[in-house]
């Protein structure tokens, strides 16, 4: 019993530290919330759903592996394979969003009048309001695609440290132990994600980027793509 309590504490600690040390667990939500002007509740909801998918996929894999008697080596190999897929997905998603930001910037500047500064102030303000209203409509229509892409990436993202922790209670034939380890690890991971994203969201609100807002989608895509490169080639 003491061993299980120690394992529960380890599960909570690893859930916290593996999230904190993996910027891919929270940076995409922070930069996209800023770029797409998500509300706090929407940002945290997307983070929660993605985190739930992230943990649940590894828990399900672990449960199925234990039930079928699959060796830990094979389960860890499968988790590594899933991690490779998730890394590539994050990289591709970042590149797509990066080029979307460039396309949006070029389209916006191509649409604007080259001698706009010569127009009367009322006309310039009217054009700005019209452009903002069109952009708001486009954002409301496309926000769901970005959210679902994040969710899908996190579903493929593995929790490598979880599988070994499930093996010990399984060897002790403790169903409660297996469930408790999964629940504690999952709660620690998701709560840490929510906490860091919340702090990042509040911090990003302090940044005054109105003059540079036309570049924010490009910057968001670059940051996400860099995370993908770091995971795939730098071993983050």
Automatic annotation (TrEMBL):
It comes from Mariniphaga sediminis. PANTHER family: OS01G0277700 PROTEIN (PTHR36394). Keywords: Membrane, Transmembrane, Transmembrane helix. Residues 41-228 form the Urease accessory protein UreH-like transmembrane domain. The chain crosses the membrane at residues 6-32, 44-73, 85-103, 148-170, 176-201, 213-234. Pfam families: DsbD_2 (PF13386). This is Sulfite exporter TauE/SafE family protein.
């Amino acid at each position: 019993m003491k061993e299980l309590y120690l394992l529960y504490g380890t599960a909570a600690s690893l859930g916290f530290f593996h999230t904190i040390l993996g910027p891919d667990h929270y940076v995409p939500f922070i930069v996209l919330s800023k770029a797409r002007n998500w509300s706090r509740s929407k940002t945290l909801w997307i983070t929660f759903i993605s985190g739930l998918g992230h943990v649940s996929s590894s828990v399900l894999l672990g449960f199925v592996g234990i039930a079928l008697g699959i060796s830990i080596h094979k389960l860890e190999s499968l988790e590594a394979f899933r991690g490779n897929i998730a890394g590539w997905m994050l990289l591709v998603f970042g590149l797509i969003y990066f080029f979307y930001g460039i396309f949006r910037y070029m389209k916006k500047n191509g649409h604007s009048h080259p001698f706009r500064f010569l127009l009367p102030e009322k006309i310039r303000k009217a054009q700005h309001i019209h452009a903002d209203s069109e952009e708001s409509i486009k954002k409301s229509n496309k926000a769901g695609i970005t959210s679902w892409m994040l969710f899908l990436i996190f579903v493929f993202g593995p929790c490598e440290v979880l599988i070994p922790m499930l093996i010990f209670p399984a060897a002790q034939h403790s169903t409660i132990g297996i469930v408790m380890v999964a629940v504690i690890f999952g709660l620690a991971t998701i709560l840490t994600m929510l906490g860091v994203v919340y702090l990042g969201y509040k911090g990003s609100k302090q940044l005054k980027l109105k003059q540079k807002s036309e570049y924010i989608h490009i910057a968001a895509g670059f940051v996400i793509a860099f995370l993908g490169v770091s995971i795939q080639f730098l071993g983050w």
